[in-house]
Amino acid sequence: MDAGSVAVVNANLTYPTNADGTYPYKPNSDLFYLTGIEQEETSLLLVKESATESKSILFIKPFDPLYEKWMGKLLTVEDAQKIAGIDTVLLNTAFEITLHTHALQQQTIYLNANEHLRAVLEVQDKDAQFAQWCKQKYPTHTYKRLAPIISSLRMVKNTIEIELMQQAANITTQGFLRLLKMVKPGVWEYEIEAELLYQYYTYGTATADYHPIVASGTDSCILHYTANSKQCKAGDILLIDAAARWANYNADLTRVMPVNGQFTQRQKQVYNAVLRVNKAMQTLMLTRALLSDLQQHCFDLLLKELVDLGLASKEALHNTTLRKEALQTYCYHNFSHLLGLSVHDVGDMKQPLQAGMVLTNEPGIYIAAENIGIRIENNILITDKGNYNMQENTPIEAEHIETLMNT
Known about the structure:
Elements: E1 5-10, H1 29-35, E2 43-48, E3 54-60, H2 65-70, H3 77-84, E4 88-91, H4 95-103, E5 108-111, H5 126-137, E6 142-145, H6 147-155, H7 159-180, H8 189-202, E7 213-216, E8 237-241, E9 245-246, E10 249-250, E11 254-258, H9 265-284, H10 291-308, H11 320-330, E12 358-361, E13 364-367, E14 372-375, E15 378-383, E16 386-389, H12 398-405
Parallel strand pairs: 1-5, 3-4, 5-6
Antiparallel strand pairs: 1-2, 2-3, 7-8, 8-11, 9-10, 12-15, 13-14, 15-16
């Protein structure tokens, strides 16, 4: 932050469903990252008076006996100080006057926002509400964006964050292993989802921040299929994109298995094509690499596999129009995204890869006419010495998956 500035980060709102119902509360990832606080109606005020003088003030909800009767215990000042490591913790009734005191002494106000290329912001969140209020209250201040600063910090994980993400990955592996023993013809997709939830809750956690994708047959070609409502049939493949989270940090795993425990020759042919691309791309996910370059290389590899699978002509290797048509038909998503407190985490995707970043590696080939959708996804930690597959213990070879399903 510039000297002579303040910044505010607010907790997320609790959103209504119907009648008096609400969605499960999800902490604001930026606030959690900076403080470890998960309680609603919390705000963080950062003040940078000069290059050497700064302060942090946390505001929490005051004691409310009616709330505690219905919803549970609220954080005390002492609780919040211990969690956040911030000495100055005040009740949120003091927020406006405290902000006023500091804002009038500074020139710049940093406003936070949920900034993501794929975000669809149809509902105004608390940070957006605050930004609107703040600009009316202090119209002559200079305003700047806080999100790029926090995103650049969140993009590179520290040792503790990596440990939390590895724990999420380990729990996810146990969930997948459980499924290999129960998937068979006649089982319903929602039963498979329930088995995953059982496994994750057994470890004291839940699914990552997306609805589990349990897609059999032709629906394996739908990237974000969430109905999970069909009965799995012999001869179909089953694509499962469902991971766990731990302490708000997400894993993200996709695996494919044959419903009857044995891939057909064609299914295995497509599966191994995707697996070859997955393995090749991991070798290239190194420090200083650019994701844009890696993406084009991934498309090159996928196109060659499409040719070998009889899905594209050899002319597509050299013809831009045919190349685009083949990829849009059979390989219609990018191979990687950042991972962390959000499944599609924040950060500048144009920056070279650097140690501490965690990204997915998830190439896919989807043949709707053949009811075959294959995506194989791992989480890759970038290090100074190469990279590390955080799901290295999750079965990935087609023959290994078949063996585990039949023993």
